[in-house]
Amino acid sequence: FWQRYVPLLSSKRTKGSQEKNGASLQRLLGYMRPYILRFAAIISLVVISSLGEMAIPYYTGRMTDWIMNEEEPEAFTHAITVMSLITIMSAVSEFVCDLIYNITMSRIHTFIQGLVFKSVLNQEIAFFDTAHTGDIVSRITTDTNTMSESLSEKLSLLMWYFMRVFFLFVFMLRLSWKLSLFTALGLPVIWVIPEISGKFYQSLSVQVQESLARANDVAMETFSSMKTVRSFANEEGETRRYKQRLEDTYSLNKKEAAAYAASTWTNSLSSLALKVSILYYGGRLVTGGDVTSGDLVSFVLYELQFTSAVEVLMSYYPHVKKAIGASEKIFEYVDRKPQVPPDGSLAPQKLKGHLQFKNVTFAYPRRPDTPVLKDFSLELKPGQVTALVGPSGGGKSTCVSLLERFYQPQEGEILLDGQPLHSYQNQYLHSKIAVVSQEPVLFARSVRENIKYGRENATDDDMFEASKMANAHKFITDLPNGYNTDAGEKGGQVSGGQKQRIAIARALIGQPQILVLDDATSSLDTESEHLVHQALLKSSNRCAILMIAHRLSAVEKANHIIFLQGGEVLEEGTHAELLEKGGAYAQLVQKQNTAFQRNTGEG
Ligand code: ADP
């Protein structure tokens, strides 16, 4: 029946998602384990406050009987005093319980946020190629918030109402088992209907979250590429795109609101029907002499509390489901294993910096059928400069990504001092290999902090030395606040060439064994580029340098030049050898010289 008429409850989906829900709930409970004592206190307080709630209906029933039997007025005074004391105790317990619960849940919330963040940071770079930043951020912020809001507010109430339902039923049983049985038989009605609408609501709320994440994506992409958007004057286009995503979210929100309203409405209607039936049956029991009038009054008061507590339980159920839905998305990230082999343990005191690519073949995970490097070999020797040149798209930057272990080659191997790259500790490896890219990213901190980012314990003298070598010291001291000048978000407050030189200083301060310059001086004028290179060549007796350059004049002095085209080595040798050979390199040099002469009007 369910499978046929209620698709959301169909067996496959229900079984699978229930297992998943159960697993997520177990995980969440697992995070609560360290706070077991606090939870024990919370549960005790819930028990005390729920028991206290029983006082008013109990004494109201007793008073009704006393009125009927014309008892002494002292009994009333006594009953009211006891009732007030119990009610105050119940309220205080509830307050303390809420306080402990919410503080504990905030602790767990921040802990889980930290877990997601750490796990995302450990993912392989290919993960970031495909995942959208908006989605990642939304899992850390929106999803964890949804989870913890639903859990901290609703789960505590859920627990509280659950306990209340339990005690109310015990008291009801004591008064009349017949009426209690009658009430219990009516319960499935107020259970099943909200369960169906709750399922529907849950699936909609997952869709709303996903749709919000898509809208976030557009906003983040637009703000982070604001200059590009402005220079294409595409503000309207971007606004349209964002509005479209918001419209999608809005239409899902409408459905979600309708589903929520429907689920609460069905709850109220069914509990109303139950109340009327109980009054009718209870009246007959009183006339039959089964129960006293006072008992019926107490029972009806208990029952009112009971069904409203069940109602509340049911209406909170979707929220808990929502929390579980959000936690599933969170745990998907927490559990994700990075798809590169884990790093090794090698961290030798002395490293020569002899690096070899041996017959490496590599395709990006997103395009597994298109090899970007084919049977590629390269050797970097300490104290030597090796240059990679060739047309754009040839695979030069890919070599750098492999060197940084962002990806794993499918064939061949990369060796550092004779050992596979992945047998070294990741942190060690990155402290020995420094890469400066064409568009380095600076942080929105001072120039000093940006440079010292390259080595935690660097002194100011180290910083000055590195800056001088990067030909950056002079312009930095000329900045309004010198080394304390703010670099701006993504280094937006310094020019492209200045950014590159700060990035070179940041790389040099770590005294790397291997220095990779991926077109890192492209924004400098020829004179500055020449100065930087000279300084670097002086330092290169310490390290091996891999230089990627489009401007061939920059690599003339390299010890070895490799011309890479379509992922294959077309030719290699020194500048003089390659010129003499008269191949692709020589032609490119010729072309660039002609263009240079034309630009400077010498041709
Ligand atoms: P070069 O640095 O020589 O200009 P790249 O190494 O950047 O060349 O690129 C080589 C090829 O790899 C290009 O065809 C490029 O489109 C592709 N490529 C680069 N990065 C990625 C990526 N993250 N995912 C898929 N393909 C990529």
UniProtKB/TrEMBL annotation:
Domain ABC transmembrane type-1: 40-322
Record-annotated membrane-spanning stretches: 35-59, 79-101, 157-177
Keyword Transmembrane applies: yes
GO terms of biological process kind: adaptive immune response; protein transport
Keyword set, alphabetical order: Adaptive immunity, ATP-binding, Endoplasmic reticulum, Immunity, Magnesium, Membrane, Metal-binding, Nucleotide-binding, Peptide transport, Protein transport, Translocase, Transmembrane, Transmembrane helix, Transport
Cofactor (UniProt): Mg(2+)
Residue runs in coiled coils: none
Compartment(s) of residence: Endoplasmic reticulum membrane
Catalytic function, reaction form: a peptide antigen(in) + ATP + H2O = a peptide antigen(out) + ADP + phosphate + H(+)
Annotated membrane topology: Multi-pass membrane protein
GO molecular function terms noted in the UniProt entry: ABC-type oligopeptide transporter activity; ABC-type peptide antigen transporter activity; ATP binding; ATP hydrolysis activity; metal ion binding; MHC protein binding
Entry GO terms, CC: endoplasmic reticulum membrane
ABC transporter domain ranges (all copies): 355-591
Cleaved signal peptide residues: none
Family named by the database record: Belongs to the ABC transporter superfamily. ABCB family. MHC peptide exporter (TC 3.A.1.209) subfamily.
Protein name: Antigen peptide transporter 1
